[in-house]
Automatic annotation (TrEMBL), chain A:
GO terms for molecular function: electron transfer activity; heme binding; metal ion binding; oxidoreductase activity. The gene is ccoP. PANTHER family: CBB3-TYPE CYTOCHROME C OXIDASE SUBUNIT FIXP (PTHR33751:SF1). PROSITE patterns: CYTC. One of its GO terms (cellular component) is plasma membrane. It comes from Telmatospirillum siberiense. Belongs to the CcoP / FixP family. The lineage of its organism: Bacteria, Pseudomonadati, Pseudomonadota, Alphaproteobacteria, Rhodospirillales. C-type cytochrome. Part of the cbb3-type cytochrome c oxidase complex. Heme c 1 binds at C122, C125, H126, M265. Gene3D superfamilies: 6.10.280.130, Cytochrome c-like domain (1.10.760.10). This is Cbb3-type cytochrome c oxidase subunit. Component of the cbb3-type cytochrome c oxidase. Heme c 2 binds at M173, C218, C221, H222. It is found in: Cell inner membrane.
UniProtKB/TrEMBL annotation, chain B:
It comes from Telmatospirillum siberiense. Keywords: 4Fe-4S, Electron transport, Iron, Iron-sulfur, Membrane, Metal-binding, Transmembrane, Transmembrane helix, Transport. The chain crosses the membrane at residues 41-59, 93-114, 167-184, 204-221, 355-373. The lineage of its organism: Bacteria, Pseudomonadati, Pseudomonadota, Alphaproteobacteria, Rhodospirillales. One of its GO terms (molecular function) is 4 iron, 4 sulfur cluster binding. Gene3D superfamilies: Immunoglobulins. The gene is ccoG. This is Cytochrome c oxidase accessory protein CcoG. InterPro entries: 4Fe4S_Fe-S-bd, 4Fe4S_Fe_S_CS, Cyt_c_oxidase_cbb3_FixG, Electron_Trans/Redox, FixG_C, Ig-like_fold.
Length: 292, 496
C-alpha cells in the first residue's frame, strides 16, 4: 500500500502514491458498473467450466456435463449437409441422364456437385476445367476417344480404361517397330502422311509414299481418312488435336508408332464413387464444352 | 488508503502554468425555457422530422405485381433500394455517393449562410437529445432541482423519478429502433411480426441496436457527441466568414457587464444603463445552453447554434425594457459596423462562397437528374473463363468460354439479341439454347432478374494470330432498341 498519495493541483484528484522517474499516476478506479460486469463474467466462466470441456485431468480431461464436443458438432454438420443432399442424390439416382439435363434444378445440382467431385478426383490428370495434358485427353474439346455422349462418358467413368476391371474399355495399339519393323524412311513417310491428314505436312512427296503403309497397317483402327474409331479408342488423326502433343509432332508420331503408349484410367466404381455421384460427374464433364 | 499521508502540491505560478489538455467532464444541466421564437421553431422542426421518420415507411407506392409496395425501402437481402419511382441495383450505389455529395455541399452552404443551423435544429442527435432532456425535466424538475437531485441520497422518491425517466427514455428508444427497422422491411408485416414474437432474431437484434444508440447518445452522451465524436463541429467553422450569420453575443453593447445594483425600481432603463453595458450577467444564457458553454466568450467549437440563448436573453431584455438582440444571429462584419455606430449595413447573403456552394449543389444535382433519367434499364457482365483459357477443336478452330450475365432492371421480361464483333468468322453457342455456330443468339431474361448464360465462341485459328484478340459482344435490347457493347478478349495459342 502506497503511503504518499498526493492531491494533483490540475485535476483535484489524488495520485496512486507511486512515482516512476518523476511520473505520477492519478488514482482513477474502474467504474463500478465495469467491475460488476467483470465479476459477472467470472461467475459465468464457472458455469462454463462445469457445463463444457475445460480442465485437464491426470488421464484425460473434464468433458462437461452437457457432453458437448467440437468433433461431434462437425459430424452433426456433415450429417445435416448429407441429408440435405440426399434428396437430390435420390432423384438423380432414379432419373436418366437425359432427364437430369432437362430438369433445371437437377442440372444445377449435378453441375455444382459434379464440379467438386471432378476437382477432387479427376483434375489431377485432366486438369481443372478438363483442359487436359500430355497423354491425358482434353475433355473440353470436340474430340472423344471413347465417345462423348452422356452415356459414353458415364460408362468410361464407371469402368475406366485399360485397367483390371472386367468391364473396362480395352484396346492396345500394336508395336510397329517390333516383329515386322518399318525402316526409318518408312516411319518418316508414314508420319508425314499422318500429318498431312490434318493439313500440317511439309513434305507432300514423303506423305504420298506413306499412304500405302497407313492403308495397310493403320486404317483398320484409325479409319481410312484418319477419322478414328471410338469403339476401340483409336484417336482421330485428321482433327489436328494430338493426345501426345509436342513441339516436334512428327517425332511424337514416330515414337508412338515404334513404342505405343496407352493411357490407363481407373474404374471409379472400384474407387468408391456411387452411381448418383458418377452421374453428376458425367453431366459436369459433358457440360465442359465437348459433349455430344 | 485512508491512512495515506496526503499532501497538496502547490500549483505553479500562472506565468509557468501550461494550458492543460485535460478537461474534467462536467455534466450539463440545461435549463428548460419553454418560450421564445427559436424554442417554438425547435418544437416545430422536431415534430416535422420525427413525423417524417415514423410516417415515411408507411407510405405505399404501387410497383406492380410481385414487387414491394413500400415507397422507401432498403431491401438488403433482395439487393434493391426503392425510393418512390426509382429502383436502384447494388452496382448503382454511386447514386448514394451523389446524394451524400449534395448533403455535404448543402451543409457547407447553410453553414456559410447561417452557421450551424443543421446542428442546432435538424441533426438527429439534437432532436433526440432535446426530446430526452424535455422528458428528464418533466420527471426531475428544472436545472436546479436536477442538480440537487443528483447530489441527494437515494430515497424512494429519487428512485421513482429516475425510474420513470428511464422508462420513458426506453420507450422512445424502442420506438426509434422500431422506426429504423421499418425502412429495411415491409413496415406493416414486420411490425406485426415484432409484436407477435414472429420476427427473426436479426430483426430483433437490429431493433435492439438501433434502440441502444438513442438511449446512450441522447440520454447520457449528449453534448459530448457534438464536442468529441462529431467531425462536423471540427470543420464547420472553416465554412464561416465575416458575413455568416452565427449566434453571437454583441459585446460592443453588452460590455462592461455587471449585476444590477439595488436601486432599480422607479428608474428608467436609460438611467440604469448609463455608462455600462446591457449584459446584467444573469447567466441565463449559460443555464439554457445544451452544451453548457458561455456564448459571451465568443464563437466556439462547442456551440451548436441552437439559439436557445437568444430566446433566454431576449426574455431578460424584455423584462428590463431594453431592445432585444443582445445575443442574436449576427455576422461579425455587422457587429464591427454597429460597434462603430453604423447601423446602415445590410447582411450580405450572396458572396462568392455561397455562390460557389450553391453552384456546385446545382451541378451535382443536374448530373444526378440527368443520369437518373437516362439510367440504363439493362446491363451485361461478361467473364472470360480461365480454365481452360482456350480449347483447340478439330478443323483448326479455337473455342473460348464465357459467362454472360444480363441484368434486366425492369419489371417486364426482357428480350436481348447477342452478336459478336472483332474476330473474323466467330460463331456462338449458348448452353441450353439449341443451335451451334450461330452469328446471333436471342436471349430472354425474366422481369427484374439477372440471367446467367454459358457462352461458347468458336473461331478459325487463322483469324486469331495473337495470344489475345479483342472481341466485342454487342447486346441489343429488342424491347427498347438500346445497344450495349462489351469489350472482352478472345484467347488463342498465337502463332505457332
Amino acid at each position: 500500500m502506497a503511503t504518499n498519495a498526493e492531491k494533483d493541483p490540475v485535476t483535484g484528484q489524488y495520485t496512486t502514491g507511486h512515482e516512476w522517474d518523476g511520473i505520477k499516476e492519478l488514482n482513477t478506479p474502474l467504474p463500478r458498473w465495469w467491475m460488476g460486469v467483470f465479476y459477472a463474467t467470472i461467475i459465468w466462466a464457472i458455469g462454463y467450466w462445469v457445463l463444457y470441456p475445460s480442465w485437464p485431468t491426470l488421464n484425460g480431461y473434464w468433458a462437461g456435463t452437457l457432453g458437448w464436443h467440437s468433433r461431434s458438432q462437425v459430424v452433426q454438420d456433415i450429417e445435416q449437409a448429407k441429408s440435405a443432399k440426399a434428396v437430390y442424390l435420390a432423384k438423380i439416382q432414379e432419373a436418366s441422364l437425359e432427364d437430369i439435363v432437362k430438369d433445371k434444378d437437377l442440372l444445377n445440382f449435378a453441375l455444382a456437385g459434379g464440379r467438386s467431385v471432378f476437382n477432387e478426383n479427376c483434375a489431377a490428370c485432366h486438369g481443372v476445367g478438363g483442359v487436359g495434358a500430355y497423354g491425358f485427353p482434353s475433355l473440353a474439346d470436340d474430340q472423344w476417344l471413347w465417345g462423348g455422349t452422356l452415356d459414353d462418358v458415364r460408362t468410361t467413368i464407371t469402368y475406366g480404361i485399360r485397367n483390371s476391371n472386367p468391364n473396362s474399355r480395352q484396346s492396345e495399339m500394336p508395336q510397329w517397330g517390333g516383329g515386322d519393323p518399318l525402316s526409318d524412311e518408312e516411319l518418316n513417310n508414314l508420319a508425314e502422311y499422318v500429318l498431312s491428314l490434318s493439313k500440317s505436312s511439309s513434305d507432300q512427296a514423303a506423305a504420298q509414299k506413306g499412304l500405302p503403309i497407313f492403308a495397310e497397317r493403320c486404317s483398320p483402327c484409325h479409319g481410312e481418312a484418319g477419322e478414328g474409331s471410338q469403339a476401340v479408342g483409336a484417336p482421330a488423326l485428321a482433327a489436328g488435336i494430338w493426345l501426345y502433343k509436342g513441339k516436334n509432332q512428327k517425332a511424337e508420331i514416330i515414337s508412338q508408332v515404334k513404342n505405343p503408349k496407352g493411357g490407363v484410367m481407373p474404374s471409379w466404381t472400384d474407387r468408391g464413387l456411387d452411381e448418383a455421384t458418377i452421374k453428376t460427374l458425367a453431366v459436369y464433364v459433358h457440360s465442359l464444352g465437348g459433349g455430344k | 488508503m485512508s491512512s495515506a499521508k496526503q499532501t497538496v502540491l502547490e500549483p505553479p505560478p500562472p506565468s509557468q502554468r501550461k494550458v492543460s489538455l485535460y478537461a474534467v467532464h462536467e455534466k450539463a444541466y440545461p435549463r428548460f425555457l419553454n418560450k421564445g421564437t427559436f424554442r417554438r421553431l425547435k418544437w416545430l422542426v422536431m415534430a416535422v422530422l420525427l413525423g417524417i421518420f415514423w410516417i415515411m415507411p408507411w407510405v405505399r407506392w404501387n410497383r406492380g405485381l410481385g414487387a414491394p409496395d413500400q415507397a422507401i425501402l432498403l431491401d438488403l437481402p433482395g439487393r434493391r433500394a426503392y425510393f418512390f419511382a426509382i429502383e436502384i441495383w447494388p452496382q448503382e450505389v454511386y447514386y448514394l455517393t451523389g446524394l451524400l455529395i449534395i448533403a455535404a455541399l448543402s451543409l457547407f452552404f447553410i453553414s456559410a449562410l447561417l452557421g450551424r443551423v443543421w446542428c442546432g435544429f435538424t441533426c438527429f442527435q439534437t432532436v433526440w437529445t432535446d426530446l430526452y432532456v424535455w422528458i428528464e425535466q418533466k420527471f426531475e424538475g428544472d436545472r436546479n432541482r436536477r442538480m440537487q437531485l443528483d447530489k441527494a441520497p437515494w430515497t424512494s422518491g429519487k428512485i421513482l423519478r429516475k425510474a420513470g425517466k428511464h422508462a420513458c427514455w426506453i420507450v422512445i428508444s424502442l420506438l426509434s429502433g422500431w422506426g429504423m427497422v421499418l425502412y429495411f422491411d415491409n413496415a406493416p408485416s414486420v411490425t406485426r411480426d415484432l409484436l407477435t414474437g414472429q420476427a427473426s432474431i436479426n430483426v430483433y437484434g437490429f431493433m435492439a441496436l438501433f434502440s441502444v444508440f438513442p438511449y446512450l447518445l441522447a440520454g447520457f452522451a449528449r453534448e459530448q457527441v457534438c464536442i468529441y465524436m462529431c467531425p462536423y463541429s471540427r470543420f464547420q467553422s472553416a465554412m464561416f466568414d465575416e458575413h455568416s450569420l452565427i449566434v453571437s453575443y454583441e459585446g460592443w453593447r453588452g460590455e462592461p457587464r455587471g449585476k444590477l445594483g439595488g436601486a432599480v425600481q422607479g428608474r428608467e432603463a436609460a438611467q440604469i444603463f448609463e455608462g455600462r453595458g446591457h449584459c446584467v450577467d444573469c447567466k441565463l444564457c449559460v443555464q439554457v445552453c445544451p452544451t453548457g458553454i458561455d456564448i459571451r466568450n465568443g464563437s466556439q467549437l462547442a456551440c451548436i447554434g441552437c439559439a436557445l440563448c437568444v430566446d433566454a436573453c431576449d426574455s431578460v431584455m424584455d423584462r428590463l425594457g431594453l431592445p432585444r438582440g443582445l445575443i442574436s444571429y449576427d455576422s461579425s462584419f455587422n457587429q464591427m459596423a454597429r460597434s462603430r455606430g453604423d447601423t446602415s449595413v445590410k447582411t450580405r447573403l450572396w458572396r462568392p462562397r455561397t455562390f460557389i456552394y450553391l453552384g456546385m449543389i446545382c451541378l451535382v444535382g443536374a448530373v444526378m437528374v440527368y443520369s437518373l433519367s437516362t439510367r440504363k434499364t439493362f446491363d451485361a457482365n461478361v467473364l472470360h473463363e480461365r480454365s481452360p483459357v482456350y480449347v483447340e477443336l478439330s478443323g483448326n478452330r479455337i473455342r473460348n468460354g464465357y459467362t454472360l450475365k444480363i441484368l434486366n432492371m425492369v419489371r417486364q421480361e426482357g428480350h436481348f439479341r447477342l452478336s459478336l464483333e472483332g474476330v473474323a468468322g466467330a460463331t456462338m453457342s449458348v448452353i441450353g439454347i439449341d443451335g451451334d455456330g450461330r452469328s446471333t443468339i436471342d436471349l430472354t431474361t425474366g422481369a427484374d432478374e439477372v440471367g446467367t448464360y454459358r457462352l461458347f465462341v468458336t473461331a478459325p485459328k487463322g483469324s486469331v494470330t495473337t495470344k489475345k484478340a479483342d472481341l466485342t459482344m454487342v447486346l441489343t435490347n429488342l424491347d427498347t432498341g438500346r445497344i450495349i457493347r462489351h469489350q472482352n478478349m478472345f484467347a488463342g495459342p498465337g502463332q505457332e
